[in-house]
Amino acid sequence: MAVDQTKLEQFVGKAIGDLGAALTAALVVIGDKLGLFKALAQAGPLTPADLAARTNTAERYVREWLAAQAAAGYVLYDAARGRYSLSPEQAVALADENSPACVLGGFQGMTAAMKIVPKLSEAFRTGHGVGWHEHDADLFMGTERFFRPGYAAHLTSAWIPALEGVDAKLKAGGRAADIGCGHGASTVLMAQAYPKSTFVGFDYHAASIERARERAAEAGVADRVRFEVAAAKEYPGRGYDFVTCFDCLHDMGDPVGAATHVRSSLAPDGTWMVVEPYAGDRVEENLTPVGRVFYSASTLICTPASLAQEVGLALGAQAGETRLREVIGAGGFRHVRRATQTPFNLVLEAKP
Predict the structure, then answer these.
(1) In this structure, which of 161, 177, 211, 307 has its CB flanked by the most CB atoms within 10 Å?
(2) Is there a domain that residue 22 lies in?
(3) What gap in Å lies between CA 308 and CA 92, rounded to an integer?
(4) What is the CATH number of the domain that holds 57?
């Protein structure tokens, strides 16, 4: 087939842009770890020497880093004054850990996930899985940082109130379990919002459970929150008023088995909230910038994690609502509805 030179140049240009994006991601992680973004946000326009002095770093490295960030559109450059700064919007995304728009955790987590490429390449050949626990520790920290701002913005103010009767139960004093809790960001947020209720977080990853316990102590809710190492199909307890799964059902090897266990652990009038990445049911619906991130993360992290477990259903991060409903229904839930959504999340309510 004949090659259209214009289209070829356009594609190569896109590839160069993506190459620059990959390199920028590594530099964002460096800027995050060294406090370069926060110093720029706090101090206003700075020369490379000023920024290096404020962060106790080497000026020559900082000078090159700033130029790269300016070329990427991540900082502003005033050529007349030789100074760099962050716009208010850039500062919110790159220097404010509590902002729902903060992207730092995403960069930290995804650059960490790339370290699995040698092992994942072999998994492509064998079909074997790569477990969550096999990844670099920065993936666990980055995942917490990436999801926590969105949970803080929506979980107790919009998602739980969108469920039938759950907000009132938790305000009065209920029992809740958070499955696949990771570092416990979601569990702690719920405990802070509902001081009369008790919460327990479960995750198979022991290192994450240790960090979750630290988070609960730091937040002053350890008296009402506990964390235990347990798999989604095996966690203990019965009669929970509320069970949650945040962005983890698709990672499970046997999500139907997990749904069945959740069903058995709920009180007769209990509710299961399933939060999953937003997706349409067909591939063509998800060929968007957000879908690109989710499909890529799913290839690096989610699908291999599921394939590393028994059954290995491998839903993937873009399973879509129809497939999720099938899985939840197969677990014994008769009533499933979309309670609410964001551009990044589907929030499903399931009742026995």
Answers:
(1) 177
(2) yes
(3) 37
(4) 1.10.10.10
Query: Is the pLDDT confidence value at 44 over 90?
Result: no
Residue 218 lies in a domain: yes
**The pairing of beta strand 240-246 with beta strand 175-179:** parallel
Do both 251 and 335 map to the same domain? yes
Kindly state the tokens that stand for 295.
């499909």
Question: pTM for this structure?
Answer: 0.94
What integer is the mean pLDDT of 30-45? Answer: 97
Structure tokens at 101: 């728009």
Task: Give the pLDDT confidence of 250-264 residue by residue, as tens digits.
Answer: 999 999 999 999 999
Is residue 126, in this structure, part of any structural domain at all? yes
Q: Say whether both 80 and 128 belong to one domain.
A: no
Neighbour tally for 72: CB within 10 Å: 15
Query: Tell me, what DSSP letter sits at residue 288?
Result: S
For residue 177, the enclosing domain spans: 110-351
Alpha-carbon gap, residue 195 to 149, rounded angstroms: 20
pLDDT digits (tens, 9 = 90+) for 280-312: 999 999 999 999 999 999 999 999 999 999 999
Classify 332 as helix, strand or coil.
coil
Q: How many CB atoms lie within 10 A of CB 310?
A: 11
Q: Are residues 88 and 167 in the same domain?
A: no
How does pLDDT run across 209-255, given as a tens digit for each residue? 999 999 999 999 999 999 999 999 999 999 999 999 999 999 999 99
**pLDDT class of 201 with cuts at 50, 70, 90:** very high
Same domain assignment for residues 44 and 118: no
Please say whether the dihedral angle defined by the alpha carbons of residues 109, 111, 116 and 117, taken in this order, is positive or negative.
Answer: positive
Residues 162 and 213 in one domain: yes
Boundary of a domain, candidates 47, 70, 96: 96
